[in-house]
Each structure stands twice: as structure tokens, then as C-alpha cells.
Write a structure and sequence with these properties.
Blueprint lengths: L1 H32 L3 H26 L5 H10 L5 H10 L1
Amino acid sequence: MQNKNLQLFKYVALIEGITYLSFGITVPLKRIYHINEPNYVMGMAHGILFIVFVILLTRLVQEKKFSFLTGVILFISSLVPFGTFWSVKKYVD
């Protein structure tokens, strides 16, 4: 069960990182060209994936797959662009 949760966490973290980086495209579309829809869709997807990421991270910390400190590092890395890619490579692969 832990390997399944770890794989799910890995995929969610990578997709969450992609949606975070997508704001580099959608925000200029919204601000410069007044095209709101891509930013709304990616914002909603990113928000949902971030919540799932935090839930899975909490579950993995509670199951002792990650230490508390690793959990904090993984959480902080989700707030930094490219952070989830680095953290998945370092802690999950």
C-alpha cells in the first residue's frame, strides 16, 4: 500500500508542478490579452492538485514513509517554482 501511495504522490507532485509553471503562460494571457479562461482553468486545477498533494503528503508523513522534516521540506518545495520536480527527484525516486 505504501508504494501505491508513494507513486500516487509522485504523479500528483509532478502534475501540480506543471500546473504551477503554467501560470507563466496563463497570467500574461489574462493580464495583457484579457483572456481569463486559461488562467481560471489552470488555477482551479492547481488548487485542487495542491490540496491533494498536501493530503497525500500528510498521509505519507503519518505512515512514517517520510520524516517530519522531510515533510516540511516537501511542503515548502511545493511553494517554489520547479520545487516539486526537485523534491520528487531527491526524496521519491
